[in-house]
């Protein structure tokens, strides 16, 4: 099977966790504290993955300059786009409670939330393809980390969408579409960047890492802390440790 196609399938697999999480969040009346705890765990998993998989790999390939520039650029671009979408009603897209605006309260918020969800998912998916450039094998640690973090993202967001009165067709259409786009983004990550220099690949990996960390600080961690309070840190550390152990077992 062509490596690019493998990358796409891995991206689709990781993205499918959003659909699974959305199903649980929309169909089940889970306590908000439980949803927030799962979100905290997923945040810890991603922090570990971007630290030991993405940033280490970027530094090894391109050195400090391209890694630092990409990391800051990724965070800046994500923050700017997130700010613009927040003005349109997507600020609470990952909140499980009743904070998401309804379409009647803020027209266009449904589209803003969809674009925000897409903004959150693309950097992670591109990384999957980029990890396959050297040697043709995917980083299973990265895939598992993204999969584990996508479950609480889909779960919390869809619970909030349900509270906002959005229909199941919107919720599952949104996450199914993003799962497919995740596969395309992973394929693109391999197909486009496999022909470029190590410095560019390193910078791109760091851009994704910066965007992911900014996303965690802006969306996942606030949701986790609001409900779990004093236990958010402990649960996040448990997620970090789980991903760290996976990276060492895979190494």
Sequence-ordered SSE layout with sheet pairings:
Blueprint: H1 3-27, H2 32-90, H3 109-130, H4 140-163, H5 168-193, H6 198-228, H7 232-250
Helix pairs in contact: 1-3, 1-4, 1-5, 2-3, 2-4, 2-6, 2-7, 3-5, 3-6, 4-7
Task: Give a structural overview.
With about 250 residues, the chain is an all-alpha fold. About 80% of the residues lie in helices and about 0% in strands. It is built from 7 helices and no strands. It has helices at about 5-25, 30-90, 110-130, 140-165, 170-195, 200-230, 230-250. Helix 3 crosses helix 6. The longest helix has about 60 residues, at about 30-90. The chain is globular.
Coarse shape = globular
* Secondary-structure-derived class: mainly alpha
Ranges where pLDDT stays below 50 over 5 or more residues in a row are none
| β-sheet strand percentage | under 5%
Helix percent band:
over 70%
Number of strands: 0
- Whole-angstrom Rg: 17 Å
What's the helix count?
7
How widely separated are the two ends? 25 Å
Query: Major beta sheet, specifics?
Result: none
What is the H-and-E element order? HHHHHHH
Q: Mean of residue pLDDT?
A: 82
């Amino acid at each position: 099977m062509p490596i690019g196609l493998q990358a796409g399938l891995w991206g689709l697999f990781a993205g499918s966790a959003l659909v699974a999480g959305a199903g649980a969040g929309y169909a089940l009346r889970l306590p908000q504290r439980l949803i927030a705890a799962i979100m905290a765990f997923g945040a810890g998993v991603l922090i570990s993955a971007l630290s030991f998989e993405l940033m280490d790999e970027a530094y090894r390939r391109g050195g400090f300059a391209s890694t630092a520039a990409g990391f800051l650029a990724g965070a800046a671009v994500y923050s700017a786009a997130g700010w613009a979408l927040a003005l349109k009603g997507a600020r609470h897209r990952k909140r499980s409670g009743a904070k998401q605006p309804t379409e009647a309260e803020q027209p266009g918020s449904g589209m803003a939330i969809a674009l925000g969800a897409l903004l959150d998912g693309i950097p992670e998916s591109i990384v999957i393809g980029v990890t396959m450039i050297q040697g043709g094998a995917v980083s299973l640690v990265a895939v598992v980390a993204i999969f584990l973090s996508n479950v609480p993202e889909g779960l919390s967001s869809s619970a909030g969408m349900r509270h906002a009165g959005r229909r199941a067709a919107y919720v599952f259409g949104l996450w199914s579409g993003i799962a497919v786009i995740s596969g395309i983004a992973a394929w693109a990550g391999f197909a486009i960047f496999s022909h470029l220099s190590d410095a560019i690949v390193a910078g791109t990996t760091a851009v994704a890492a910066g965007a992911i960390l900014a996303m965690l600080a802006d969306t996942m961690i606030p949701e986790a802390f609001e409900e779990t309070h004093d236990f958010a840190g402990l649960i996040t550390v448990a997620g970090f440790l789980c991903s760290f152990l996976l990276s060492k077992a895979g190494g």
